[in-house]
Write a structure and sequence with these properties.
The structure holds two protein chains of two kinds. Chain A is an alpha/beta fold. Chain A has helices at residues 18-31, 106-109, 120-126, 132-144, 148-159, 164-181, 207-218, 232-244, 255-267, 278-294, 321-326, 344-359, 369-372, 441-456, 482-494, 512-518, 535-543, 563-571, and strands at 5-13, 35-42, 50-58, 71-74, 94-98, 114-118, 202-206, 222-225, 248-251, 272-276, 298-304, 335-338, 362-368, 375-379, 425-427, 465-469, 473-478, 499-504, 506-508, 524-529, 549-554. In chain A, helix 4 packs across helix 6, helix 5 (148-159) runs antiparallel to helix 6 and helix 7 packs parallel to helix 12. The radius of gyration of chain A is 26 Å and the shape is globular. In chain B, the strands form two sheets. Chain B has an eight-stranded mixed beta sheet, sandwiched between helices. In chain B, strands 5-6 form a two-stranded antiparallel ribbon. Chain B has a single domain (20-275), classed as Thiamin diphosphate (ThDP)-binding fold, Pyr/PP domains (Rossmann fold, 3-Layer(aba) Sandwich). The chains are: A alpha/beta, B alpha/beta.
């Protein structure tokens, strides 16, 4: 256990309630003033497969999972071997398991961890309406030293709507779980929280919820949705919430429909978005090109998972970078952004809506499973308002309206249906300034240049990247890898090293001058990413002049990039 | 169609642009364009409140030949674009137009689900049983033994698709067939289709004189249907399945529920955010 955080893994059969119990632990810890992170690892089965929840709690904001686990609570051993590689244990770890579950897998035993067997199943059977996961919650609460009242509030909040009997059984399970741990020496796992008062300055959020909120904050009022793991929670969060703010979500028949529906709604003047994952993004590509050509703003949030094809739907990988950057046919300038933390899913999505509307272009916003489906306790995000909006055509202009007029910025006023005098036909065919189809070289050249220029000339301000630190060694990364990289950098600095971390938020259009400036004086450059073919490294090589000696730490999913590995790369390079 | 601000004294020609269509001389689509603009003049809706949405193909060029708001989108996706537009902007009159390949083949899934969803819009399919823009290949409505295409030299060997029966089964609320050779009749049906709530499916037999010259015969073989419009889906289904595809008229006007989500603000974004507090 590191001095400031404690890490717990809870495992059990899928459907046993592992995720529910883990979320309650996280929320209860949050009520005591702790920060935390909860990641999930599941198989494709709805029930009966494997499920593991990983929690890390700390007194300071938690960027990523730890390199090892302090505590593992195993509700059963059924499928644990399938993700044992994701749960590094050692001699200082404590494993709590059921007395009747049989012998633990040899790989777990080999870790040298201390085992404590408790009569979990036996106790559950003695409780009317007892549920194993609530017992596990009590066990964990006792091990972590989370006070009773914090747990009770969280359990009540979650179970009250299911009736008094369920609530009572749940609380009884927690109490019974607590008493099983009595007498065990677990004081070393207790973290001191600040208070038990309800706090409005801390939020408990998933990346997918934050992407949904970012959409709404940015002004999105139409969403078309086709379910896909691991993006579905964005759409499920938006469905009830969008309608409260006067918007609407339509469930489409497929991703081809959802992308084209949002183009239609945006043509009508309503800021529009969809969310998907790799296979869905692949289906949407043709219509994203239509958005480019017709200059109709849209946002596509793509929550990456293991690929190609159906790949590993429930696990994280950063391997959709190539399709997001290069997947469109023709010369099709578009914007690609990436969130670099769970809370940043909010900012990046909101900013992406703003960019789409301002530039009348499609934005592909990349997050991934580990950001989207993980929960974090964070400081309440600041209110950020972007003032510019879509430039629209006002009726009764003196000169005849030209939808695709060549302007200084490359952005031309968009007429919204209902506006007299603005009637035009949006077209995926190349067109003249009026929108009339044209296959002429002059129109093609002019319109290509206009669409490229409007993206290239915009000043994206400070938001293009997150930059911290100084020094001759730089780590350049993106997306969810920023979490472990930041933690590694913090540890390296604590050990006396100077280094800088650059995490790109704006991937396209490439910010060549800005990155070169940020890398000035760098002698060694470490690229960290989660893909097999080093997609991010190749992208950097294609668009930027990288200084100094370069190394790449790249690995595909599903294993997360860990801060200890990044630190090792940094420290071994001297 | 819900009540829109009326504008009187517009004639059919006021809805036409000055672009010259890409269509061949003798193409049925010229007549459909005239029928559409006649219907719009009859409906007396302000030009700026109408949107014509299409996909790709000869007939899908139609938005540019009007002076209305329009979207010439990608192949097969017109109904999806139109659905997004109409749901987000229920105040607009939305017309979707295209061909048989665009609507029934590459766009077949959207066709089924647009019927099912029953959003208030009118879908005009100019059906000439051929892909004209790619120079004459078989479409889903081409007869199985049509062997004039280089792509299917022995005929398709596949039974033609039955668009109106599919539309009825899938849930469309208004089903009609027209003939481009009867522009006034087609205009009347389009007017009726727009006025009827929900998804209105209008198939127009529109000859392709270039790749299906035998369709010139339609002026002799197409006839008015010998039925009265029904709201009984089972009667309409039996009639449609027995018909040879050359009878015109309004076969079905239903009372199926229309998809029309409310767009009413009842909370602020700040209200939504309260849920996240620990």
């Amino acid at each position: 256990m590191s001095a400031e955080t404690v890490s717990i893994a809870i495992t059990g059969a899928g459907g046993a309630g592992v995720m529910t119990a883990a979320q309650m632990v996280l929320n209860a810890a949050a009520r005591t003033g702790l920060y935390g992170l909860m990641a999930r690892s599941t198989g494709p089965q709805i029930r009966g497969g494997e499920a593991a929840a990983f929690i890390r709690l700390g007194a300071k904001p938690v960027n990523c999972l730890d390199n090892r686990f302090d505590v593992m609570v195993s509700l059963d051993w059924l499928n644990v071997e399938r993700f044992a590689a994701e749960i590094p244990l050692d001699a200082a770890s404590l494993i709590v398991c059921d007395a009747d579950a049989g012998p633990p897998p040899s790989r777990i035993v080999a870790s040298g961890a201390q085992f404590v067997t408790l009569p979990l199943q036996q106790t559950v059977k003695s409780l009317p309406g007892g549920r194993l996961n609530m017992l596990g919650l009590g066990v964990l609460a006792a091990i972590l030293g989370v006070p009773d009242d914090a747990i009770t509030v969280v359990v009540e909040k979650a179970l009250r709507k299911r009736g008094q009997a369920v609530l009572d059984a749940g609380l009884a399970g927690v109490t019974a779980g607590r008493s099983l741990v009595e007498g065990l020496d677990v004081g070393r796992f207790h973290l001191q929280g600040a208070s038990t008062a309800a706090r409005t300055d801390r939020w408990s959020v998933s990346g997918n919820e934050m992407a949904g909120l970012g959409a709404v904050r940015g002004g999105i009022r139409f969403v078309a949705a086709y379910p896909i793991t691991p993006a579905t929670e964005i759409l499920e969060w938006l469905a009830p919430n969008l309608e409260k703010v006067g918007g609407v979500l339509v469930q489409a028949e497929d991703e081809l429909a959802s992308i084209n529906m949002i183009i239609g709604a945006s043509f009508g003047g309503t800021p529009s978005l969809t969310a998907t994952s790799g296979p869905g993004l692949a289906l949407m590509m043709e219509a994203i090109g239509l958005s480019v050509a017709s200059e109709t703003p849209i946002v596509v949030v793509n929550v990456m998972r293991g690929g190609p094809s159906t790949g590993i739907p429930t696990k994280s990988e950063q391997s959709d970078l190539n399709i997001a950057l290069y997947g469109l046919h023709g010369d099709a300038p578009h914007i690609v952004t990436a969130a670099n933390s769970i809370s940043d899913c909010l900012f990046t999505t909101q900013w992406s809506v703003h960019l789409a509307e301002q530039l009348q272009a499609p934005v592909i916003t990349l997050t991934d499973q580990s950001l989207g489906q993980s929960r974090a306790v964070i400081d309440r995000p600041a209110d950020i308002s972007f003032f510019s909006k879509r430039e629209t055509f006002a009726a009764a202009a003196a000169t005849p309206y030209q939808r695709y007029a060549i302007t200084g910025s490359g952005v031309s006023a968009m007429a919204i249906p209902g506006t007299p005098g603005g009637e035009y036909v949006a077209d995926g065919l190349e067109h003249s300034v009026t929108g009339r189809p044209s296959s002429g070289a002059e129109d093609h050249g002019e319109q290509l240049a206009k669409r490229a220029r409007k993206l290239e000339d915009l000043d994206y301000g400070q938001y293009w990247a997150e930059i911290e630190g100084e020094g001759p060694l730089a780590v350049v990364t993106w997306g969810s890898c920023a979490g472990p990289v930041r933690e590694a950098a913090e540890l390296a600095r604590a050990a006396g090293m100077d280094l800088r971390v650059i995490s790109l938020r704006l991937l396209a259009p490439a910010q060549t001058d800005r990155l070169e400036q940020a890398l000035a004086g760098v002698e060694r450059l470490l690229v960290v990413e989660q893909s097999h073919s080093r997609q991010f490294y190749r992208y950097l090589r294609a668009f930027y002049d990288l200084p100094g000696e370069i190394r790449v730490f790249s690995r595909p999913g599903p294993l997360p990039i860990r801060s200890s590995e990044v630190l090792q790369h940094i420290q071994s390079w001297s | 169609m819900s009540a829109l601000p009326e504008q009187t004294a517009l004639s059919a020609s006021d809805f036409k642009s000055d672009y010259r269509p890409v269509w061949c001389p003798g193409c049925g689509h010229y007549s459909v364009l005239s029928s559409l603009t006649k219907a719009l003049a009859e409906l007396a809706v302000r030009r700026e409140d109408i949107a014509v949405i299409s996909g790709i193909g000869c007939s899908s060029r139609i938005p540019a030949y009007t002076n209305l708001y329009g979207f010439h989108s990608v192949h097969g996706r017109a109904l999806a674009v139109a659905t997004g537009l109409k749901v987000a902007r229920p105040d607009l009159l939305v017309i979707v137009a295209g061909g048989d390949g665009d609507g029934y083949s590459i766009g077949g899934n959207h066709f089924i689900h647009a019927c099912r969803r029953n959003v208030d819009m009118t879908y005009i399919v100019m059906d000439n049983q051929v892909y004209g823009m790619t120079k004459g290949q078989a479409s889903p409505t081409t007869p199985a033994d049509w062997d004039k295409s280089k792509l299917t030299p022995h005929g398709t060997g596949v039974s033609p698709f039955h668009p109106l029966a599919v539309a009825l089964a899938a849930g469309a609320n208004f089903i009609a067939r027209c003939f481009a050779g009867d522009p006034n009749g087609t205009a009347r049906v389009i007017t009726e289709a727009v006025r009827h709530p929900g998804f209105s499916m209008v198939q127009v037999l529109s000859p392709c004189v270039t790749y299906q010259p035998e369709q010139r015969e339609w002026k002799n073989t197409v006839r008015k249907a010998d039925i009265v419009t029904t709201s009984e889906a089972d009667l309409a289904a039996r009639w449609l399945m027995a018909d040879d595809g050359l009878s015109t008229g309004v076969m079905y006007k239903g009372h199926r529920p229309v998809y029309r989500p409310e767009l009413e603000e009842t909370a602020s974004v700040a209200d939504l955010e309260k849920w996240f507090a620990v």
